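Hi everyone, sorry if this is the wrong subforum. Our group has a chain we'd like a structural model of before ordering constructs, and none of us has done structure prediction before. Sequence below.
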Amino acid sequence: MKTYEFLSLLKEHANKRLHFEYKAGHEIGANYHITEVKNVSIDSVDCGAGTDFWKETIIQLWESPLEIENPEYMTTYKALGILSKVDTIKPMEKDVEVKFEYSNPQFHTAQLFVQGFEIKGNTLLMKLGIAQTDCKAKETCGVPAVEAHHNEEACCQPGSGCC
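Answer:
Right subforum, don't worry. Here is the predicted structure as tokens:
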């Protein structure tokens, strides 16, 4: 999801409760805060000597241990206010990927992609997820492409070639 799409979603669903699902079935607690907004530029070289450059917006979410009992989630209006204020201080790149940085004692620190969203009554639920690392230069490096097996039962059948 692009940064402008996220901001538009917040505007479109003003005053809904803003929830984040950091992995399937696990939500960030109502005690979360937006603690940092990063404008990030990545200037990289992959293992095949290919270069790349892109930008991202990273919004850091943190659960306050002092507010663990807080039952009230941040509203989309409040989140938009925070991000608007940030934008006046350090303008955000709007046409770049937005990610959310988060961790808790049971979940390692990760930059999570927006995989989708859901409107449930008075709630906007942002569904986040991780992306696996990958080799961008498989052909150059001689790494064979591996087909993803979506049916694990079929994958490990005798003669399937995966075991």
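For your construct planning: Helices lie at 3-12, 76-89, 138-141, 152-155. Residues 152-156 have pLDDT under 50 and may be disordered.
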